[in-house]
Amino acid sequence: MKNGSVLRELRKFERDSSWIHRRFEDLRKRYPNELIAVRGGKIIAHAKSVPELHAKVRRLNPRLVGKVAIEFLPKEDQLLIL
Amino acid sequence: MRIRGEWGAHEAPYVRAVLICPSLGIRSPLTFLVDSGATRTAILDHDAQNLMIPYDKLTRQPQGAVGVGGMAEAFLMRAIDLVFQADSGSHVERLLTIQVLRHPTRTERERHAVLALPSVLGRDFLNKYELRLNHKKRLVAIEG
């Protein structure tokens, strides 16, 4: 398998996903109960549902749908016992 | 082989990979919670929606799945590659199947709780390797 382009895609995603995780608490306050999509260290869309988020990302660049880092930001602190 | 992850939201360990499923035309990156409590690796609701995984083309598991989000519908996606960034280049993990879960939700609050659940990298993957977690040193590594 030619993994060069896959790894480039993964590295971009890792940077953006990490960007979200480092700011998780601040972002939760700014976008309570919303999903955000991040590309290049910038929030490119936010929405209440994945289809709504996809529609906004699609308007910016259809090729980015399903490829950018997204995260749901719960308003209430959630106790996760996994 | 050494895959590095990081401590992220909720001070939990995460790794990222690109999921490739040629039969469904899916090639998308996603974030996994490293979860040694999970029997199987699973894609949860918001990632399944984001990757536009067609549930109707998956094999439904009649027994479902039980987890932190309660009882969920469980589906099998077949012939998956997970591509990780490793120190030595790429690491490709071939999985015969991966679970895709769908939680029923009745209220907005339940919907929010389910959307917050991360996809999990479970013991079907982790038990093949050495998992190294050290929060004090901010270390998340899978080695083999």
Mean pLDDT across all residues of chain A, rounded? 92
What is the average of the pLDDT values of chain B? 93
The residue ranges of chain B in which pLDDT falls below 50 over 5 or more consecutive positions are none
Discrete helix count of chain B: 3
Name the helix and strand elements of chain B from N-terminus to C-terminus, one letter apiece: EEEEEHEEEHEHEE
Tally of helical runs of chain A: 3
Uncertain parts of chain A: none
Largest sheet of chain B: 8 strands, mixed
Instruction: Estimate the helix proportion of chain A, in percent.
Output: 40-55%
Strand content of chain B: over 45%
Structural class of chain A: alpha+beta
Of all chain pairs, the largest interface belongs to: A-B, 33 and 38 residues
Record field, number of beta strands of chain A = 3
Work out the number of β strands of chain B.
11
Main sheet: strands, sense, barrel of chain A = 3 strands, antiparallel
Distance between the termini of chain A: 34 Å
Would you kindly provide a written description of the structure presented here, covering whatever features stand out?
The complex is a heterodimer of chains A (82) and B (144). Chain A is an alpha+beta fold and 82 residues long. Chain A has one domain. Chain A has a 3-stranded antiparallel sheet. In chain A, strand 1 and strand 2 form a beta hairpin. The model of chain A has no long low-confidence stretch (mean pLDDT 92). With 144 residues, chain B is mainly beta. Chain B has 3 helices and 11 strands; from the N terminus they run E-E-E-E-E-H-E-E-E-H-E-H-E-E. In chain B, strands 2, 3, 4, 5, 6, 7, 8 and 9 form an 8-stranded mixed sheet that branches. Chain B has a 3-stranded antiparallel sheet with strand order 1-11-10, with no helix packed on it. In chain B, a hairpin with a 2-residue loop joins strand 6 and strand 7. The relative contact order of chain B is 0.27. The mean pLDDT of chain B is 93. Classes of the chains: A alpha+beta (82), B mainly beta (144). At the A-B interface, helix 1, helix 3 and strand 3 of A face strand 3, strand 4, helix 1, strand 7 and strand 8 of B.
